[in-house]
Amino acid sequence: MLNYILLPILISISMVLVGCSSSSSPDNAAPVINIELTSLPDGVREINGEIFVEINSNLSPPPATATDLEDGNLTAQINIQNNVNLTQVGTYSLIYSVSDKDGGDASITLKVNVIDSSVQQPTISLIGEPNVTTQVNTVYNDPGATALDAQDGNLNSSISITENVNSSIIGFYTVTYAVTDSDGNSVEITRTVQVNDTIPPILNLTGNFTTTNPYNWPSGFAFVEPGFTVADNSGEDLSNSVNISGNLNTNVVGLYTLNYQVADSSGRSTQKSRIVNVYDSSNQPVITIAGSFLISIEVGSNYVEPIGLSASDAQDGDITANIIITNNVNSSIIGNYTVQYNVTDSENNAAFTVTRFVNVVDGTPPTLTKVNNNEVLCSPFGTGGILSGVLSSDNVDGDLSQKVKIVSPIDFTIAGVHTAAKLEVSDQSG
Q1: Per residue, what are the HEC states of the chain?
Q2: How do residues 20-74 score in pLDDT, each as one tens digit?
Q3: How far apart are CA 28 and CA 308, in angstroms?
Q4: Is the CATH number of domain 123-196 2.60.40.10?
């Protein structure tokens, strides 16, 4: 069954990922590094390719050899990057690397687990900070935790995570990590996640009406707001929260300023201004359009002129039949368009041009379909790129199968099967 993340124009499903590794051509093979783990010093253990050492002890990097098809023995050229802290319980790494004369590079990582045998219960540590923040309506990706036990070794795969983070609702949430060793000793640790909103609302006024390009309005007519749009990343509906202020008097000719202000529930606010020119309507015709000055239509649909368009003149009366409409709306292409209305009376007096703004939008999300027995093949090794197993298409962008992303925390350094992966895809409209 498809599972959807509630984000605009964003689809996700849960899949099984099959990892695969890349290969090199034999004629251009990189050097090969081998780490010797059979003769470790006393107090150092090897379990499943990782070594375990007691806290506050001494550890020299295990010896390694390096060979190359052309260069032969490169052991002396091995470089070891050592970030092991023997005074702090945790998981660290020794990185062995070498290069041949042709520039072929090789590296291998040995995990080193520093443990404290005097502690009976496992040790669990957070990856990252104990207190983190994430923006509302974004995907929260938890960095996870690590767990070690003096007898059982690495218990990362045994950690159970309880997460109640709802990134669509502002607030504080807790992620709990718990692990139990083979003797029944349990331990847990928590992380606090704050979902917040630090981004102010987006307020757009219809038209670009400034002092040099004002919004013209006929004197003596009740003012009609040309419109605005407002959106907030929290998803709040702020369309009725915009405060409009100003001293507009449509009975007096002149320039006026209208101020628009809106704030979301987090107190973030945005301000915009519009210039209105009240002109003497006794000397020229007046055009009145029906419906909103700002209209949005779905891409692929047709723009239909609202019924009720009219034009009047002090001397000629009703001159609606003389209105000239200039319509440049291309509903097959997403974008912002205008429809303009003009009229002239019998004395050749022209009305101020009236403009309607039409936005052609894509409000239809792409589809995401699972195939191949609910498995996704990923490649190359370590990158998580998708090769096959999922199909995606969009009414505007077409085939989006190569745009599908893996968003759940999957370790792509390990080839094999990973379960319950979340995938998502978005079109150009977001």
Answers
A1: CCCCCCECCEEEEEEEEECCCCCCCHHHCCCEEEECCCCCCCCEEEECCEEEEECCCCCCCCCEEEEECCCEECHHHCEEEECCCCCCCEEEEEEEEEECCCCCEEEEEEEEEEECCCCCCCEEEECCCCEEEEECCCCCCCCCEEEEECCCEECHHHCEEEECCCCCCCEEEEEEEEEECCCCCEEEEEEEEEEECCCCCEEEECCCCCCCCCEEEECCCCCCCCCEEEECCCCCCCCCCCEEECCCCCCCCEEEEEEEEEECCCCCEEEEEEEEEEECHHHCCEEECCCCCEEEEECCCCCCCCCCCEEEECCCEECHHHCEEEECCCCCCCEEEEEEEECECCCCCECCCEEEEEEEECCCCCEEEECCCCEEEECCCCCCCEEECEEEEECCCEECHHHCEECCCCCCCCCCEEEEEEEEEECCCC
A2: 334 444 456 889 999 999 888 888 888 888 998 888 998 999 999 999 999 999 9
A3: 75
A4: yes
- pTM for the whole structure: 0.53
Least confident window among 14-18, 60-64, 117-121, 289-293: 14-18
Please, what is the average pLDDT of the chain?
83
Q: Does domain 284-357 have CATH number 2.60.40.10?
A: yes
| Domain range list for the chain | 10-21+364-426, 31-115, 123-196, 198-277, 284-357
In this predicted structure, what is the pLDDT of residue 425? 73
Phi/psi region, residue 184 (left: phi>0; alpha: psi -120 to 50; beta: rest), is left
Class of domain 31-115: mainly beta
Let me know if the fold of 31-115 is the same as that of 284-357: yes
Q: Which two tokens stand for residue 418?
A: 């990973």
Considering the domain 198-277, what is its CATH architecture? Sandwich (2.60)
Going by DSSP bridges, is the β-strand pair 145-149/153-154 parallel, antiparallel, or unpaired?
Answer: antiparallel
